[in-house]
Specification:
The protein has one domain. It is 39% helix and 24% strand. It contains 7 helices and 10 strands. α1 crosses α5 and α1 packs parallel to α7. About 13% of the residues have low confidence. GO terms for molecular function: phosphatidylinositol binding. It comes from Silvibacterium bohemicum. This is Lipid-binding SYLF domain-containing protein.
Length: 238
């Protein structure tokens, strides 16, 4: 009779573990979908978004969709997102990240604020590969320029490891994230890849993108094609 409570407890733990795994996978897939939507918005609104020169120069793109869903200016907010980096053969498989802490310059009373971080040079890339770093501490960051072109302001080319943006209601704006910590989201990594995978292995292109991430990878590829076309045809207005 003593075995029955132990058996029931074991079944309870197992069922909860399976429920968490299923929920974690669904949450990760939804995050991929929302991140794809942010990428599409970059293409669709170049005049109000991230400059083409900046986007085409970025080594990595980090997206945290729906970071805030209303309220006042928040210090120490937390969000989860996706990172991908350029490799010799295209873009890397998606790596799952979390962002938390710091003092964030977010808008008041805004729903669905999306965060975009662009890693602009090798120093920023190495910080991202480390699986955990602090913005403003380990890696320098600044609010990114907005609009179709950024040629008038060249500081971002020389000084910025990371350019940061927020988006609300279709409009992008620079944002400061001093003190925020970016690190690997191990739960989502396991949910999508089925096991632990390091940032370095994923973002360096050594791991193939799982089938469940193909829609996101297509959105990343489309963003790259759009910025390349815009650079080749600067006077088209599209």
């Amino acid at each position: 009779m003593k075995m029955r409570p132990l058996l029931l407890a074991g079944l309870f733990v197992l069922s909860n573990g399976l429920l968490w795994a299923g929920t974690g996978h669904e949450d990760s897939i939804e995050r991929l979908r929302m991140s794809s939507s942010v990428l599409h918005s970059i293409i669709e609104a170049p005049d109000r978004g991230i400059p083409e020169e900046v986007l085409s120069s970025a080594k990595c793109i980090v997206i945290v969709p729906h970071l805030v869903k209303g309220g006042f200016i928040i210090g120490g907010e937390h969000g989860r997102g996706i990172a991908t980096c350029r490799t010799a053969t295209g873009w890397s498989a998606p790596a799952f990240i979390s962002v938390g802490g710091g003092s964030w310059g977010l808008q008041i009373g805004v729903e669905g604020v999306d965060l975009v971080m662009l890693i602009m040079n090798d120093h920023g890339f190495q910080h991202l590969l480390s699986s955990k770093f602090q913005i403003g501490g380990d890696a320098s960051a600044s609010a990114g320029p907005v609009g179709r072109h950024a040629s008038a302001d060249t500081d971002w080319k020389m000084n910025s490891e990371i350019l940061t943006y927020s988006r609300s209601k279709g409009l992008f704006a620079g944002i400061t994230l001093d003190g925020a910590v970016v690190e690997q989201d191990n739960d989502s990594t396991q949910a999508i890849y089925g096991r632990d995978r390091s940032f370095r292995a994923i973002l360096s292109g050594r791991i193939a993108a799982p089938r469940s991430t193909i829609a996101f990878m297509n959105a990343v590829a489309a963003t790259g094609r759009a910025s390349a076309i815009a650079e080749a045809n600067p006077g088209t207005g599209k």
